[in-house]
C-alpha cells in the first residue's frame, strides 16, 4: 500500500466553523459552550502538504430536550426544547513550508451560512419575570461568527502530535430576543493537544484530540458558560489507497460552573457523548487533491443539554504532494558507453 500522508487533514475541514452550531441548536446558555463536539476526526495530527487549502462542509443536526429538563436559551428559561440545523461552512487555510519550532505551522479561517430552527413547548420566563405557557417556533437564516485557528504538527514516523489554538470572533447574526441564532453573541477561545497513529503501509489509523474551551460573557444576557473539556477520537482502516472507513466519537464535559447575573439556574454543568460511523475517499485532481468525508454521530449520556444526532459531509481541496524524483540508474545504460 502506498503512502497516503497527502490526505487533507480533517481538522481543517471541521474545526473552523462547525462550532457555530453548538450554541444555537443546543441553546446559547445552560452549560453549552461554543465548541462543537466531534470537531476533530481521522488524521487530525498528521502534517499536510504545504500550500493553500479550501473546504466546504454541509452540516445537519436534529436535537431535542425532554419536558422534565429546564434549559437556558438567550434571556429565557425553557422546557421541551427541540432544534434542527442545515449549515454550509466555508474554510480557507494555508500550511507553511518553513518549520516553526521544528513543526509544521498552519492557519485557517472559517465562516458559516445557513438555517437554524428551534421550538419550545412549556413555560417561557422573560428577563423581567413575565411567564408564558405554550409553544413557540422560530427559524433564522443568516451568517455565523468568524472562527480562526492556528496549529503546529510534528511527525515521528507512525506517530504524529499536534497543538492548536482556536477562537470565536463574535460578528455573526445574533439577537437575544430570538431562540434561533446563527451567531453566538460572545467570544471564546479554545486550545488543546492531539495525537494520531498512522501506518501508511498497513492503513491503520487512530486519532484523539483533547482541549479546553473558555467562553467570554454574553453582554446581552450577562451569562457566561463554564469552562469545558472535550475529547474527539476516530479510528479507521484504509481498505484501498483511496478509501477508508471506521468509527468516530466524542466526549463533552463541562468542568466549570456557569456564572454571571443571567445564570439563574446555578452551576448547570452539562455533559454528552456521541459515536457513529465514518467514511472517506481521496480524489486525485492533478496538481490538487480532493477529499470527501461523511461522518455521523448518535448522542447519549446527556446531562443538562438536549441530545440527538448529527452528520457532516465535507469536501476539501489541497495541493497534492510533489511526486518523488526518479531513482538514478543502477548501471550505466548501453547508449552511454
Largest sheet: 12 strands, antiparallel, barrel
List how many beta strands DSSP finds.
15
What's the helical proportion of residues? under 10%
Strand order of the largest sheet: 1-4-5-7-8-9-10-11-12-13-14-15
The average pLDDT value, as a whole number, equals 81
- End-to-end separation in angstroms reads 37 Å
Assembly type of the chains comes to single chain
Fraction in beta strands = over 45%
Keywords:
54% strand, mainly beta, twelve-stranded antiparallel barrel, 337 residues, 2 helices, single chain, disordered C terminus, disordered N terminus, globular, two-stranded antiparallel ribbon, Porin
TL;DR?
With 337 residues, this protein is an all-beta fold. The chain has 2 helices and 15 strands. The strands form 2 sheets. It has a 12-stranded antiparallel β-barrel. Strands 2-3 form a two-stranded antiparallel sheet.
Word description of this protein:
- The protein has helices at residues 10-15, 22-25, and strands at residues 51-64, 70-73, 76-79, 82-95, 104-125, 131-143, 147-156, 159-168, 188-199, 204-215, 228-238, 243-254, 271-285, 288-303, 307-319.
- It is mostly beta strands.
- It has a single domain (10-321), classed as Beta Barrel (Porin), CATH 2.40.160.
- Strand 9 (188-199) and strand 10 form a beta hairpin.
- The radius of gyration is 22 Å and the shape is globular.
Amino acid at each position: 500500500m502506498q503512502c497516503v500522508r497527502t490526505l487533507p487533514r480533517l481538522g481543517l475541514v471541521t474545526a473552523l466553523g462547525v462550532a457555530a452550531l453548538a450554541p444555537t441548536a443546543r441553546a446559547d446558555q445552560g452549560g453549552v459552550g461554543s465548541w462543537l463536539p466531534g470537531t476533530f476526526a481521522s488524521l487530525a495530527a498528521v502534517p499536510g502538504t504545504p500550500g493553500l487549502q479550501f473546504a466546504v462542509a454541509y452540516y445537519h443536526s436534529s436535537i431535542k430536550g425532554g419536558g422534565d429538563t429546564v434549559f437556558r436559551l438567550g434571556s429565557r428559561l425553557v422546557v421541551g426544547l427541540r432544534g434542527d440545523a442545515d449549515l454550509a461552512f466555508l474554510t480557507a487555510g494555508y500550511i507553511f513550508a518553513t518549520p516553526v519550532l521544528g513543526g509544521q505551522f498552519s492557519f485557517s479561517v472559517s465562516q458559516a451560512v445557513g438555517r437554524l430552527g428551534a421550538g419550545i413547548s412549556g413555560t417561557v420566563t422573560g428577563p423581567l419575570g413575565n411567564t408564558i405557557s405554550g409553544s413557540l417556533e422560530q427559524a433564522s437564516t443568516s451568517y455565523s461568527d468568524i472562527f480562526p485557528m492556528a496549529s503546529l504538527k510534528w511527525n515521528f514516523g507512525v506517530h504524529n502530535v499536534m497543538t492548536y489554538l482556536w477562537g470565536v470572533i463574535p460578528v455573526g447574526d445574533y439577537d437575544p430576543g430570538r431562540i434561533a441564532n446563527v451567531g453566538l453573541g460572545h467570544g471564546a477561545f479554545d486550545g488543546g493537544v492531539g495525537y494520531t497513529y498512522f501506518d501508511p503501509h498497513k492503513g491503520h489509523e487512530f486519532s484523539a484530540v483533547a482541549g479546553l474551551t473558555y467562553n467570554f460573557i454574553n453582554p446581552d444576557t450577562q451569562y457566561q458558560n463554564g469552562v469545558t473539556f472535550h475529547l474527539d477520537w476516530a479510528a479507521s482502516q484504509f481498505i484501498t489507497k483511496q478509501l477508508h472507513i471506521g468509527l468516530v466519537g466524542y466526549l463533552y464535559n463541562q468542568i466549570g460552573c456557569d456564572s454571571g447575573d443571567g445564570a439563574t439556574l446555578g452551576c448547570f454543568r452539562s455533559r454528552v457523548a456521541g459515536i457513529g460511523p465514518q467514511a472517506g475517499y481521496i480524489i486525485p485532481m492533478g496538481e490538487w487533491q480532493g477529499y470527501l468525508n461523511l461522518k455521523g454521530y448518535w448522542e447519549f449520556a446527556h446531562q443538562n443539554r438536549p441530545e440527538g444526532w448529527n452528520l457532516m459531509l465535507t469536501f476539501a481541496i489541497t495541493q497534492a504532494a510533489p511526486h518523488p524524483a526518479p531513482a538514478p540508474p543502477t548501471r550505466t545504460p548501453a547508449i552511454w558507453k
